[in-house]
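The pair is quoted verbatim as follows:
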Amino acid sequence: MSAAEIRRCFLLPTSALAFAIAITGSACAQDISSGPLLHDALGGPDDLVLAGSVRARYETLGGQARAGFGASDELISLRTTLLAEYRSNGLRIGAELYDSRAYASKPGSAIGTGEVNTFELVQAYIGGELADAFGQGSKASAQLGRFTLNLGSRRLVAADDYRNTTNGYTGLRTDLRLSGGTALTAFYTLPQIRLPDVRAAILDNETQLDRESFDLELWGGFLSRPRVFGETMGEVSYVGLHERDSDGRPTRDRDLHTVGARLLREPASGKFDHEVEGYYQFGSISETLSNTARNLDVSAWFLHADVGYRFPGSLKARVSVEYDYASGDGPNGSYGRFDTLFGMRRADLAPAGIYAQIGRANISTPGLRVEAAPTARVDGFVTYRPIWLAERRDNFSTTGVRDASGRSGSFAGHQVEGRIRYWLVPQILRAEANAAFIAKGRFLESSPNAPKTGNTRYVSLSLSMQF
C-alpha cells in the first residue's frame, strides 16, 4: 500500500478518529462502571441515552475461492455510529447514524454495499412500552419507523455486526412478553436497500441515502417459551419475503415463506448445552433476472445442530460439536437452494467482510469448536470443519463456483477459523483479530470456473471503541 493510499484512508473520517482517540485517552483515568462516555460527558441525564462507536479494521485475503474476483484482496474499513434515544414514561424516540467507509481495495476486489454506506440514518423511530397490559409482570411494546432487527437465532433476520455495514428495516415491530417468560414478536417491514450500489460510487465512498419501497417486503413473527422441557427454550417462527422488479433494479421476484422451529439450552458451567434449529422454505422464484423468465416452485431447507459442554473453572472453556446443512438447487425442475434472507453468517460459519467464502447455502458441514474466556477482558475460539456441497451441481455456498455436470465431486475442503478479542480498556476499547484458512478440496480445485489461486488465507485486525 502506498503512502498516498494510507493518507487517503484517513482523509474523510479524521475528525471522528481524533474524537475517538481523545476520548480513549481520558477513558483510562475514569471509572469505567459509570456508563457510556458520551452520556457521562453530558451529565448523564436519566431520560436521554447517547452512545457511539468507532471501529477501524484491516483485512487481507489471499487464495480467493470466489469466482469472478481477484486472486487477492485487502481493505481498510472505518465504521462510526452515533445513537441518541429519548425515554420518558414508556415513550422512546431514537435515531442512529452509521458512517461506513472502505479504502485501499485492490482491482477485482469484492467490495460492495456490505462495506460502504456513508452518513446513513439507519434508525429513526418512535416507540412505546406498556407494563402489565396483559397481566401482572407482562410488558407490551411497539416500534415504528426505521430500526435494526435481531430476531431469534439471527439466522434469518439480523443486524450484521462483523460486516462494515448493517441491515436496516423500515416499518412496525410489536413485542409482548408475559410474566412466565413467553414472548411474541411480530413485524412488518420494508428492508432498506443500501446505496450507492454502483462500483465507482462505492470506491469513492459517495453518500447516497438508502431507500425502501413496497417492491421489497419482509414480515413475520417469532414465538418463544422458556423451559418447554427442563432448561430448554422452544421457539417457532414464520418469515415472509416478497420482492419484485423496480426501476433500474431487476430481481429474482422472490416470494418466499420460511417456517422454523428451535430448541435451545444456553451454555452453563459444568453442564451440557444444545441447540437444534430447522427451517423449511417454500414459495416461488424467477429462473433468471429477465422479466420474461419462468417462475420456479421453491422447496428448500436448513438445519443447524450443536451439542456442547462448558468446563468448570476460570478458563470458561467450552467444546462443542456442530452440524450445518443448507440445501442446494438440483436438476428436478423446482428450486431447492436455501435463502438465508437477511441472516448473519459469522456466529456459525465464517467471517463476512472480504472473506465471505462460506454462507448458509448449498452446504453440508460438521464442525468442532473450542472456545474460552479466561478473564473478563479476553475471549476467543477456534473452529474446524470439513465442508461438502449439499448438491454437487449447484453453486458452492457463496463462492459462485459451479460444475453443472457434477463431475468435480462434492468435497469443497477443510476450513479452520478463529477469533481472539481483548479489552484494552474494559467496555471501551477492544482489539480483535480474526483468521481463516481453507485447504481446498477437489471441488474448489477442479470445477470449471474455480479460481486457480491455491489455498485461501484471511486475516483481519481491528480496534473498536465504545463511547
